[in-house]
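Please check what follows.
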Amino acid sequence: MDQAPTAILIGPPGAGKTTIGKRLAKVLRVQFIDVDSEIVRREGRSIGDIFSTEGEPRFRQIEEDVVADVVAHQTGVISLGGGAILSSRTRELLSAYQVVYLELTVDEGIKRTVGSGRPLLAGDDPAAKYRALMAHRAPIYRDLATIRVSTVGRAPASVVRQVQRRLKDTEPGRVRRGPWPKLPAVLRSPGSKSGSGRNRTE
């Protein structure tokens, strides 16, 4: 695993995976790759457009393939979209690497994401959708994590320092075998065509 990623960041919408990932990569002097941005680059269209024209199942297939390719061929810090961990293939893949879960409370997550235009939070009650999303995903985030760091009430620099410190103190990898628990149904909602969330799914 000489070419393994330094760290793979996971977490819910609004946790700051891209912001923390960029800063962490700079401190560690490694490259940073955001999987959502990589999907947009490869597909030549926004994530909101993929959701609205082809639906979430197709997006998840694309996401799963891009995650597998990036993790296999890139080093440095990798940030995954919030829903990437819903794929059993991706969960098995992550079990061999350093996985940093950027934790966020539900209330803080709602505060940070309402009005963001994320496709999965589109509709009349994005707060309710966020709560349901977290009920589904939080146990999976916790199960996958080798490192857990809260981002609530903390400046990005503080979060980065803690992640960096924890990476030094944690074994470089682990291998875990299933069985993985059966997941509840994934939330479905139409894609949004407006707002900064066009390139964020979560």
In short: Residues 173-198 have pLDDT under 50 and may be disordered. DSSP finds seven helices and five strands in the chain. The CA atoms of residues 163 and 169 lie 10 Å apart.
